[in-house]
């Protein structure tokens, strides 16, 4: 039976210095630190900090030993997402179904009991060297076993939940992973874009979104397409050395306030191409937000048959051109900003050229 994925429980990052990364996400994006696991709590191999804003939970983990496999992971890929964890009704059943459907097991189901209650976890491998953990909470009162409450308040920026998580895979591998998600996790095909939708004069990509039935979990999967120069997806794969998570899209109910706060905190966003606002209103039409404020904050906007959305993308958050964050506000639209693809691609190509990777 296909597992029931209740929600994204957390996203874990492997980072070179979790203490500093925690400070960055608190200061730049307004997350609260809520828990910690490390040598002081009995875990001598790794240090992990748990951050929360709204329904978004991030775990930042650093290996403390040279012979920890996560040290090799960091050497190969740099800072990035290593686990997208789901809360499920039955972790053992979810793991068994996924493995029977072709997934590679990383950890079989294991039950842990401590003062906070009982929890069962398991894990499988997905594209690249990324994992999916299954977490069966059963009323567990803490975050996860081994973590202690260590609270440091941030200054929230209005982020509410994870809207979607984007993965980049190698050329001609997208359809394989679309089938994999359907078979193993029951995430069906939601929408697709081909290289006619997402292209410029120089580069292109193909993308398919898989999603849960209620659309609470959405995973776009990208692959590079042939072009005159290197696609941003191929640049990512070259820098990451394999497939991986390209970005998290974090939702807000007031993108004007959120982007203003993030810019004030020093978050570095991709620039919007010159002339973008000369043409966009003819395509998008009326919106509730102030047009001049949208232009001042350099926010992208798009419309489909169901409504409109506003979005903006950071530059990569580490020195390798890999992981970044998208900020998104949905006003009826359930799409992914198709009308902005060309403008976004042109900006990314300018960044690629500066790096010598176009």
Tell me the series of helices and strands, N- to C-terminal: EHEEEHEHEEEEEHEEEHEHHHEEEH
What characterizes the major β-sheet? 9 strands, mixed
- Give average pLDDT, whole number: 91
Q: How far apart are the first and last residues' alpha carbons, in Å?
A: 45 Å
Number of contiguous helices:
9
Beta content = 35-45%
The total strand number stands at: 17
| Assigned CATH architecture of the largest domain | Roll
How many discrete structural domains? Answer: 2
Cα-based radius of gyration, to the nearest Å:
20 Å
Topology (elements, then pairings):
Elements: E1 5-14, H1 18-29, E2 32-37, E3 46-53, E4 56-63, H2 69-77, E5 80-88, H3 91-100, E6 104-114, E7 117-125, E8 131-136, E9 148-152, E10 159-168, H4 174-185, E11 188-193, E12 204-211, E13 218-225, H5 232-240, E14 244-252, H6 255-264, H7 276-284, H8 291-297, E15 300-304, E16 307-313, E17 324-331, H9 341-355
Parallel strand pairs: 1-4, 5-8, 10-13, 14-17
Antiparallel strand pairs: 1-5, 2-3, 2-9, 3-4, 6-7, 7-8, 10-14, 11-12, 12-13, 15-16, 16-17
């Amino acid at each position: 039976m296909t597992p029931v994925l209740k929600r994204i429980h957390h996203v874990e990052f492997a980072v070179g210095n979790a203490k500093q990364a925690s400070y960055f996400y608190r200061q730049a994006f307004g997350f609260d630190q809520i828990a910690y696991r490390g040598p002081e709590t009995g875990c001598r191999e790794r240090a992990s900090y748990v951050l929360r804003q709204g329904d978004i939970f991030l775990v930042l983990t650093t290996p403390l030993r040279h012979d920890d496999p996560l040290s090799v992971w960091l050497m190969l890929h740099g800072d990035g997402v290593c686990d997208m964890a789901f809360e499920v009704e039955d972790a053992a059943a979810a793991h068994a179904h996924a493995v029977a459907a072709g997934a590679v097991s990383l950890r079989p189901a294991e039950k842990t009991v401590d003062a906070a209650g009982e929890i069962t976890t398991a894990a499988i491998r997905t594209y690249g060297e990324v994992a999916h953990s299954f977490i069966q909470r059963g009323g567990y009162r803490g975050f996860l076993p081994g973590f202690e409450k260590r609270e440091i308040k941030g200054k929230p920026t209005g982020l509410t939940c994870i809207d979607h998580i984007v993965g980049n895979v190698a050329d001609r591998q997208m359809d394989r992973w679309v089938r994999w998600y359907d078979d193993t996790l029951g995430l069906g095909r939601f929408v697709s874009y081909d290289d006619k939708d997402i292209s410029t004069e120089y580069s292109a990509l193909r993308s398919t979104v898989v999603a849960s039935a209620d659309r609470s979990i959405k995973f776009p999967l990208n692959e590079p397409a042939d072009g005159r120069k290197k696609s941003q997806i191929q640049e990512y794969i070259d820098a990451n050395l394999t497939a991986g998570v390209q970005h998290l899209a974090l939702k807000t109910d007031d993108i004007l306030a959120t982007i203003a706060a993030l810019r004030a905190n020093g978050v570095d966003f991709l620039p919007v191409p010159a002339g973008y606002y000369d043409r966009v209103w003819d395509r998008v039409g009326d919106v509730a937000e102030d047009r001049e404020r949208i232009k001042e904050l350099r926010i992208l906007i798009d419309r489909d048959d169901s409504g409109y959305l506003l979005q903006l993308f950071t530059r990569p958050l580490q020195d390798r051109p890999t992981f970044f964050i998208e900020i998104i506000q949905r006003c009826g639209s359930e799409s992914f900003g198709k009308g902005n693809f060309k403008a976004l691609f042109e900006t990314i190509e300018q960044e690629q050229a500066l790096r010598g990777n176009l």
